[in-house]
């Protein structure tokens, strides 16, 4: 059973590599692939930001000083949470 799965994975990897090589020869295809990757990455970042903001929407939104502290929380989100997200996805 493991041998069959490994063959299937190998065949899929070979087919994918072949398809990517064919696209690499076309500047238009390559640019489309890069753009799709960029859009997907920003979608993922956006979802992470929304999740972080949603975490504040409960108890935090009920505090009297919520609006006054909002800029500080946004800076913290950018400096801490986005840096952590970048580190998770790039290793840096």
Molecular structure report:
This protein is 89% helix and 0% strand. Helix 2 crosses helix 4. The chain is mainly α and 92 residues long. The longest helix has 30 residues, at 27-56. The protein is elongated, with a radius of gyration of 21 Å.
Largest sheet: none
The run of helices and strands is HHHH
Amino- and carboxy-terminal Cα gap: 38 Å
Helicity level, as a percent range?
over 70%
> What is the radius of gyration?
21 Å
- Average pLDDT level: 82
In percent, how much strand structure appears in the residues?
under 5%
Shape: elongated
Number of strands: 0
Which structural category do the helix and sheet elements fall into?
mainly alpha
User: How large is the count of helical segments?
Assistant: 4
Low-confidence residue ranges: none
Task: Set out the fold topology.
Layout: H1 2-24, H2 27-56, H3 59-62, H4 66-90
What's the gist of this structure?
The chain has 92 residues and is mainly alpha-helical.
Descriptors for this entry?
single chain; 92 residues; mainly alpha
């Amino acid at each position: 059973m493991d041998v069959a799965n490994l063959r299937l994975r190998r065949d899929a990897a070979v087919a994918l590599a072949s398809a990517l090589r064919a696209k690499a020869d076309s500047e238009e295809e390559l640019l489309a692939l890069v753009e799709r990757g960029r859009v997907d990455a920003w979608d993922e970042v956006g979802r992470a930001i929304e999740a972080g903001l949603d975490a504040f929407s409960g108890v935090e939104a009920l505090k009297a000083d919520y609006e006054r502290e909002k800029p500080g929380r946004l800076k913290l989100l950018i400096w801490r949470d986005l840096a952590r997200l970048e580190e998770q996805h790039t290793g840096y």
